[in-house]
Input
Amino acid sequence: MSRPRIRRASDGEIRWVHVSGQSFYEEEAPTRIVGVIADVTHRRAVEERLRQAQKIEAIGQLTGGVAHDFNNLLQVISGGLQIMDVRAIRQGASACSTP
Output
């Protein structure tokens, strides 16, 4: 079983084929050979498109995870700034109220 690449003589197009065969022997001498050659170019193209789609999906999941983690960090920073703002307002109010 192999998947060699061949160039079609009629138009020079590259085609992928699956080759399978068997030899039959009588008294250790080959008497006949049986085989099948199937054009799998279309199947190979579909498999390649599937691989590309899977890569793009994986990249999308990775970037979504990074964006989620970055958003979590921004929420921590925002929460810290809000706490600092509240403290600054309280300290400013207490400084203004003391004579």
